[in-house]
Amino acid sequence: MSVRLGKKIVYLSAVALLVAACAKDENKPSATTDQSQTAVESGSSGTPDAVKTPTVEEQELMTWKGGNEQGMIAYAGTDRVFFQYDSSELTAHAQDTLRKQADWLKHYPQIKVQVQGHCDERGTREYNLALGERRATAVKNYLVALGVPASRLSTISYGKERPAVVGNGEQFWSQNRRGVLVVQ
Predict the structure, then answer these.
(1) 144 within 8 A of 98, measured Cβ to Cβ
(2) CA angle in degrees (0–180, nearest 5) for 168-98-54
(3) pLDDT of residue 13
(4) Residue 27 carries which DSSP code?
(5) Distance, CA of 38 to CA of 24 (rounded, Å)
(6) Measuring CA to CA, which residue among 107, 104, 102, 134 is closest to residue 118?
(7) Virtual CA dihedral for 163, 175, 173, 127, nearest 10 degrees?
(8) CA-CA distance, 141 to 104, in Å (whole number)?
(9) Domain with CATH 3.30.1330.60 in the chain
(10) Whether the Cβ atoms of residue 156 and residue 136 lie closer than 8 Å to each other
(11) What residues does 182 pair with on adjacent strands?
């Protein structure tokens, strides 16, 4: 799919350049003005600086940020979504983040991810494992609803066993109530 997308990008870029080159601009300066402007834009050697056109791979990397976990984070802004206390319901902000992650995942169809469900330290171990599983499943189901194949997504619950931050109080607990996508 990315090869086809790359070919389309190259094709559309070539067409756009061709149209721009063929277009007649009524306000275009004369040839003598163009030559003097070229001299101003040229390097110290008097020759015009080379304009490097990005390759298809470079264009894709600039757009999609790469097919690894850092690429997903760069594209979507984060690898995690957060939940309210004692809830596995996705917030509007979480849904926005998951839409970006889904777009990125659809662009890289070979990538599989594990959705990890986490909780804060309050509650029993058993309760938090179940809540973490509901959170991971909520994230997975939302991604599937957005078009990511379920076969590419696995879930696991860590409950309260792997806190992102350690401490007591809402400022710490809110960072531990999360669903995290881990590229495999």
Answers:
(1) no
(2) 120
(3) 55
(4) T
(5) 20
(6) 134
(7) -60
(8) 16
(9) 65-183
(10) yes
(11) 114
Angle between helices 125-145 and 92-107 (to 10 degrees): 60
The CATH code for residues 65-183 is 3.30.1330.60
User: Using CA atoms, how far apart are residues 73 and 80, in angstroms rounded to an integer?
Assistant: 9
> Which of the residues in the chain have pLDDT under 50?
3, 5, 10-12, 15-45
Closest CA to 100 of 60, 146, 57, 61: 146
Q: Are strands 80-82 and 113-118 parallel, antiparallel or unpaired?
A: unpaired
Give helix then strand counts, H and E, for the chain: 7, 4
Residue found by looking up tokens 């300066």 in the block: 29
Sign of CA pseudo-dihedral 160, 161, 162, 166 = positive
3-class secondary-structure state, position 94: helix
Backbone Cα Rg of the chain: 24
CA distance 139 to 180: 9
Distance CA 60, CA 66 (A): 8
Which alpha helices (H) appear in 23-152, and where do they start and end?
A: 31-41, 56-64, 69-76, 92-107, 125-145
